[in-house]
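Input (structure):
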C-alpha cells in the first residue's frame, strides 16, 4: 500500500472517506478543451476489499428537479473570531 494512503487509513479514528474522481482532464490541450481520461479505483484497494466499504456515487440533479437555493452570505471573519477568539 502506498505510504501516504496507509498512514491515512491507519490514523482514521471513527470514519474514513476515500474519494475517487470520475475523470481527469488532460493537460496541455486547447484553452476550452474537454479531453479527459476516466479514473480507475486505486490499485491498493482490491475488488475483494470493496465489501468492507459503503460504495456510493454522485449524480447531478436532473433538469426537471428544482435546484436548492444558494446559501446566504457567510461571514468567515466572524466565524474565525468565534472559533479562536
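Output (sequence):
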Amino acid at each position: 500500500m502506498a505510504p501516504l494512503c496507509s498512514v491515512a487509513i491507519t490514523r482514521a479514528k471513527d470514519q474514513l472517506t476515500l474519494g475517487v474522481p470520475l475523470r481527469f482532464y488532460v493537460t496541455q490541450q486547447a484553452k476550452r478543451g474537454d479531453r479527459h481520461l476516466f479514473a480507475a479505483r486505486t490499485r491498493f484497494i482490491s475488488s475483494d476489499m470493496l465489501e468492507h466499504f459503503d460504495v456510493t456515487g454522485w449524480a447531478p440533479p436532473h433538469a426537471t428537479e428544482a435546484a436548492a437555493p444558494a446559501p446566504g452570505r457567510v461571514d468567515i471573519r466572524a466565524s474565525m473570531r468565534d472559533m479562536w477568539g
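Notes: Helices lie at 3-11, 76-84. DSSP finds two helices and two strands in the chain.
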